[in-house]
Design brief:
There is one protein chain. The chain is mainly β. The protein has a single domain, classed as Porin. It is about 10% helix and about 50% strand. The chain is built from two helices and ten strands, in the order αβββββαβββββ. Strands 1, 2, 3, 4, 5, 6, 7, 8, 9 and 10 form a ten-stranded antiparallel β-sheet that branches. The longest helix has 19 residues. The two termini are about 30 Å apart.
């Protein structure tokens, strides 16, 4: 909720800044900016943003949950957009996503056994469909939906050590689906496009410990990514 509130504040400040610089967006008779931009077949851009990654953990047996402490990470990447229809575009948004999560395992008294820091550097490959509404003045809301593949450069997947040596391991590749919404805001020289979307993991990422009775991983049925992604895109 805090992330969404911050996103709305930033969006409000951006709109206020545009109004102060003479970009009439919501006026009765706005000056139409970049009128022919949406007619382009292909266009490119870049994005900056932040994220909040979590884990969805399913268990084999009922017991104490593993606690996940989330932090705010950052995103940066590029956008390639292909027009399929007047209101439908295909988007490819490869980017670098950094995040950190702390896992607290129940049943231990020693802090070195309880805490596992999971630092993740993702190369993210989403392929999305963008469904835009009719443009009104200098704004155009849209919905996003699609799938993505993620390469975790910090997965420890090749490590022979496991939680007995304080190594929490996950797989290098994961698959996800994504849903979100945003708004294209047309200024005089560029399009500013804030968006927010949810990422939901489809595949189990956990690499189990070598000991099948491991107190860390034996009761885990699956661990999947989930996240809130907020991006500010410029075309």
């Amino acid at each position: 909720m805090k992330k969404i509130t911050l996103f709305l504040i930033l969006l409000t400040l951006s709109l206020k800044g545009m109004a102060q610089t003479g970009t009439n967006i919501f006026g009765k008779d706005p000056i139409i900016h970049l009128e022919n931009f949406q007619k382009q077949r292909v266009y490119f851009g870049y994005f900056l943003g932040f994220n909040s990654f979590d884990f969805k953990i399913d268990y084999k047996n009922v017991g104490q949950d593993i606690q996940v402490k989330k932090t705010t990470g950052f995103n940066v990447g590029v956008v390639a957009d292909l027009k399929l229809h007047q209101y439908v575009n295909l988007r490819f948004e490869p980017g670098l996503y950094y995040t950190k999560r702390d896992l607290s395992f129940p049943g231990f008294t020693n802090q070195i056994d309880v805490l596992r820091e999971v630092n993740s550097t993702y190369i993210h490959f989403p392929l999305l469909l963008k469904f835009s509404s009719l443009r009104t003045g200098n704004i155009r809301p849209y919905l996003l939906s699609g799938v993505s593949a993620t390469l975790n450069l910090s997965s420890n997947s090749k490590s022979l050590d496991d939680n007995y040596e304080q190594k929490f391991r996950v797989k290098s590749w994961s698959a996800n689906y994504e849903l979100g919404f945003g708004i294209d805001i047309y200024s005089e020289y560029f399009i500013f496009s804030p968006s927010i979307r949810g990422l939901f993991g489809l595949t189990d990422e956990l690499i189990r410990d070598n000991d099948p009775n491991s107190p860390w991983t034996s009761n885990i049925d699956s661990i999947k990514n989930r996240a809130i992604l907020i991006n500010f895109t410029f075309h």
